[in-house]
């Protein structure tokens, strides 16, 4: 870690404390959004900028508009980007085009598609973490996924009862920072070239 990383962590901590202890402030959603925007810095430096960019769009839509389906759709793209990153493949543009059809489905079906992609993301990350070369990074990345999962469980429960935004963000904000910082360590290393004899 260098000065940029430490600076990011200090700003993150400041915003995290503000949105946790001043949850009634009229600026709390702005603080939440800035926390997610801040995750763009490590994401850009550690190779998952596209996933972090879609996360910013998702949270912007969910925090500031009533278009929840669009927000969840972009979260589907977030997990698709992480999956592609770990498989060392670029998702074809046609996949993004055809995925727009998900917006035609009702929210519960779109939520189920999101859950399936998240599950694939978790299983793939866990599989990569079992490899020896990923061990220094895997615990923190899996912790990030666990916090993300806790956040999603609270969101799902809040859909049927009263939502708990403070608790949701206590789990969600650090999950995004951990994913942005630690994704690079889980990406499969390119195989060394061995010429045919």
From TrEMBL:
This is YhhN-like protein. Belongs to the TMEM86 family. The chain crosses the membrane at residues 33-58, 70-87, 93-126, 138-160. It is a multi-pass membrane protein. It holds the Pfam family YhhN. The keyword Protein biosynthesis does not apply. It comes from the Bacteria. The keyword Transmembrane applies. Its main location: membrane. GO terms for cellular component: membrane. Keywords: Membrane, Transmembrane, Transmembrane helix. Coiled coil: none annotated. It is found in: Membrane.
């Amino acid at each position: 870690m260098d000065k940029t990383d430490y600076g990011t962590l200090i700003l993150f901590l400041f915003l995290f404390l503000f949105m946790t202890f001043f949850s009634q402030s009229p600026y709390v959603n702005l603080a939440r959004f800035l926390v997610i925007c801040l995750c763009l810095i490590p994401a850009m430096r550690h190779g998952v900028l596209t996933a972090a960019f879609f996360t910013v769009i998702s949270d912007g839509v969910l925090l500031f508009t009533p278009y929840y389906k669009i927000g969840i759709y972009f979260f589907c793209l977030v997990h698709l980007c992480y999956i592609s990153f770990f498989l060392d493949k670029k998702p074809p543009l046609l996949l993004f085009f055809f995925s727009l059809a998900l917006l035609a489905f009702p929210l519960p079906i779109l939520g189920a598609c999101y859950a399936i992609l998240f599950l694939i993301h978790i299983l793939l990350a866990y599989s990569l973490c079992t490899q020896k070369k990923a061990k220094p990074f895997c615990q923190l990345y899996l912790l990030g996924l666990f916090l993300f999962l806790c956040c999603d469980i609270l969101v799902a429960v809040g859909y049927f009862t009263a939502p708990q935004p403070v608790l949701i963000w206590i789990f969600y904000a650090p999950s995004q920072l951990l994913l942005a910082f630690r994704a690079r360590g889980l990406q499969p290393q390119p195989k060394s070239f061995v010429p045919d004899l």
